What we know:
Elements: H1 2-14, H2 28-40, E1 53-57, E2 64-65, E3 92-95, H3 106-109, H4 123-131, H5 139-149, E4 154-157, H6 164-178, H7 183-192, E5 199-202, H8 206-220, E6 227-230, H9 236-242, E7 250-253, H10 255-263, E8 274-277, H11 280-283, H12 286-297, E9 317-322, H13 329-334, E10 343-346, E11 358-363, H14 369-379, E12 386-390, H15 394-406, E13 412-414, H16 420-423, H17 426-432, E14 437-440, E15 453-458, H18 465-472, E16 485-490, H19 493-508, H20 517-520
Parallel strand pairs: 4-9, 4-10, 5-7, 5-8, 6-7, 8-9, 11-16, 12-14, 12-15, 13-14, 15-16
Antiparallel strand pairs: 1-2, 1-3, 3-11
Amino acid sequence: MALRRGGAAAARAAVGSQPPEHVVRIPWALRQRLERRRKERRPGEAAVPSGKLLLRSRRPELSQPRWQIAGRWERPRLVSAGWKHREACGDYFQLEPSQEAAPALRALTASQGQSFAEMGLQPALLTALQSLEVGRPTAVQRLAIPALLRGRSALCAAETGSGKTLAYLLPLLDRLLARPGKEEDKEQEEEKKAAAPRGLVVVPSRELAAQVGAVAAALCRPAGLRVRGLTGGGAAGGLRRQLRAPGVAVLLGTPGALRDALRRRFLTLGRLRWMVLDEADTLMDESFAAPIEEILAHTPLAAGAPGPAGPREERTQVVVVGATFPAGLSQVLGRFVDVGRFTSLATQGLHHLPPHVQQKFVRLKGQDKLPELLQLLKDHPASSGAVIIFCNSASTVNWLGYILDDHKIKHLRLQGQMSAVARAGIFASFQKGDVSVLVCTDLASRGLDTSSVQLVVNYDFPDTLQDYLHRVGRVGRVGSKAPGAVVSFVTHRWDVDLVRKIETAARKRTGLPGMDSSINEPPPKAD
């Protein structure tokens, strides 16, 4: 032992005069990690970027200030880069609002631009807008109304909550008023025969049909035009009763109900002057493809077909509307219309993340989602606005509903497997504020007016980027009192793939990838 102690003392004395006998080698990856930590802790160097943040991370070094924008070909450091690893659970990042108002509202404060009256709309429609307390037009309305007044068929794409309903209803109703049909001469004849509307709006759900129908009825009331809704879920007698009103000028319906009415000859589209396909990405889904094609086949759309009033009459004006368009849309429409003659109308904010809405992404284990949701609901009192909780399946909606019942949280449920009787009035009750929490599937993510909603929770992360945009669009809409916030739970590896794309688009301030081709794709070539 003495010899060893003496050897150690000699070694200590030799330090500085000769290299040590044994060398400890540090792995390269560990050296890099230690070097990064040393730089982050360097005195005088701030770990948190200065100024207002565009992206706030749990790890301050990954936050991005608002003034900084990642280059087009740059590969920014992502918070979600390592989220497929189990140790990432508990990590999060948040997209901070970069502006107060929605992009669609920029037209309200612009010093230049047309008002509704300057667009030349009929006086009856201007009166109706005053009763609805609608002021200056939004961006999509300024873009679409003049184009549609000229009678051109169009693809109209704009971000969610930007006022697309008025953008297509106002010019199309104006065209009906400018060329009124002889309804009074045909009322008695139409009572005995099929309904023959001059305007048709096709929507994917009965809830959206009721909402758009209420707006259309308010616009048509001063003009004396009759509006009717057509939804399925009942017997044939129910379809006949819905179409019984004489002289219906505008009809709003779901694809299945319209197809059944056409097959039973309760409805004819020979006098149709214009047709709207609202929420096009949903209508072109496989579940609606066959009914939509059958409806299009009954309308006077073909290039060689006569118009509603004869060979010299212009053919039906078609307007396809949505916040996102499905791939292959031109191919489907190209079988019935000349898509090459369509006008493309798209706003600047299309396919971009809403810059006025706070969006938080939390990496969680599946077992931690429910406690996190209950805590969110506890921290969000009813006085702070309504809450929508999105799930990916009807079974999850039902299961989550039972859990909320156990915790005495009053809520409503809405999913596609409910019967028509069960669904009737659920969303209307939510809109009125009778209940402030709605648990639903993507059935409620398309087109519905949710201006009272202040918080959206993606309990299940959406399957596609399109679904994410529609869900985020439930807050920060035109007419909302506050921009609101969105919280998304990220649990699966495939969820992380979508989150990385969202984070990259946010850091680069670009549109979400893979969504522009559907509106910019070339029309199909004629055979």
